[in-house]
Amino acid sequence: MTTDLTTLAAALRASPFLGQSGSAADPWADAHAALSAMRTLGADWNGIGVPAPAPLLVDHAFRLAGWLEGRCLGPPARIVAGVTGSVIFKWQACGGAGLEVEVVAPFAGELTVF
Question: Structural domain of residue 43, as residue ranges?
């Protein structure tokens, strides 16, 4: 499902996915570190031909992280590079429920709840 940022923020506020990670002083530190590390990925970074996220896409993922953080939303449990060169924010809740926001293009993402 594609969604705008206001709808995304409302969904996250009402969800069980807002647990804190990172340090108490900066709960978003791990997320920022993961995004910074993505800038160092090269082509075929995983050995099976997966492209690295484009620098412009990582820039937009940083903007999304800043936007979420600025609205006092909890950081994702993980941020990973997707197999199509995307950037994926993953939140997890008890019982196996999860939420992913996949940044697939500048100003575009996909929201998955499972």
Answer: 5-113
